[in-house]
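Structure (tokenized):
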């Protein structure tokens, strides 16, 4: 029995379909099917129910899965043991919110690439909801998102918080010496996508001071929010660390206000049963060490 066929079986069972496994292993679906046929011939038993579109395990397949998981974990242990000398490159599929990508993640990945030279990354930037779904479906290995992810299969580690603030183009920011919520509510507010927790919280804060719904422009793109605010379109409500450059060069000015926005919290989340869970946990430990010198009371500072 060839190890690669057992590896293929593991990924079909984990990802839920032959198509997903083919994409993961960079193979065609016929090649995936051929490997499973050979595996079943070797075992003398079918491991998948053929008449279903979803890759559902037969009793023999469920029995085999435990052995496949142990084999995958052993493979990762071997790679970890020879990390200093091995020439085998591993790719970690990372999903991250744009807030993370626009602040510390590039520096961290650069640092990590120096200490783990055989490690590469497939980086996806997306909203927290999409990242959560991708993690649960095992389309990514590690997610930096507004967590935690409330799934039994997912492990969550708190990594950092961000202080939120109101800011605007200088001409707009100077219209009031002191900005209270009633004044802020009279202008367009630019912030995270409508289905995110920060956006909902801001809407609730402003609603009592509006005739109808607050005037909010929301986007999954933090960069777009910042550019719109810099153009003078409205007041942005964003992480302070994400607009550090704009605040220093005067592109944006912090509003003089006592209105406090809730901090936003991020977790590093991964599937605890993954064969590379040990490697992911080690990377998260390095993330926490990396951020320790860049945070005050766990709030990230640029």
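Design, position by position:
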């Amino acid at each position: 029995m060839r190890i690669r066929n057992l590896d293929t079986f593991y990924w079909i069972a984990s990802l839920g379909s032959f198509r997903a496994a083919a994409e993961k292993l960079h193979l065609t679906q016929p090649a995936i099917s051929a490997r499973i046929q050979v595996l079943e011939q070797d075992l003398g038993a079918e491991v998948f129910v053929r008449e279903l579109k979803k890759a559902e395990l037969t009793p023999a397949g469920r029995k085999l899965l435990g052995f496949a998981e142990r084999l995958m974990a052993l493979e990762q242990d071997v790679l970890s043991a020879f990390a200093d000398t091995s020439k085998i490159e591993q790719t970690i599929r990372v999903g991250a919110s744009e807030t993370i990508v626009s602040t510390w993640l590039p520096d961290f990945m650069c640092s990590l690439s120096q200490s783990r030279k055989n490690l590469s990354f497939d980086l996806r930037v997306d909203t927290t909801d999409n990242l959560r779904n991708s993690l649960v479906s095992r389309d990514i290995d590690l997610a930096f998102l507004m967590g935690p992810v409330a799934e039994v299969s997912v492990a969550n580690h708190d990594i950092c918080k961000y202080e939120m603030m109101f800011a605007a183009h200088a001409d707009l920011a100077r219209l009031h010496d002191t900005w209270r919520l009633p004044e802020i509510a009279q202008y367009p507010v630019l912030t995270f996508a409508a289905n995110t927790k920060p956006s909902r919280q801001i809407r609730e804060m402003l609603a009592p001071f509006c005739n109808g719904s607050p005037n909010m422009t929301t986007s999954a793109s933090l960069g777009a929010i910042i550019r719109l605010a810099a153009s003078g379109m409205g007041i942005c409500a964003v992480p302070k660390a994400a607009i550090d450059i704009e605040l220093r060069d005067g592109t944006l000015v912090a509003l003089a206000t006592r209105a406090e926005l809730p901090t936003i919290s991020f977790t590093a989340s991964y599937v605890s049963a993954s064969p590379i869970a040990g490697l992911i946990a080690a990377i998260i430990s390095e993330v926490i060490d990396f951020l320790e010198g860049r945070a005050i009371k766990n709030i990230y500072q640029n």
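Reviewer-requested clarification: The domain at 3-81 is CATH 1.10.10.10 (Arc Repressor Mutant, subunit A). The longest helix spans residues 59-81.
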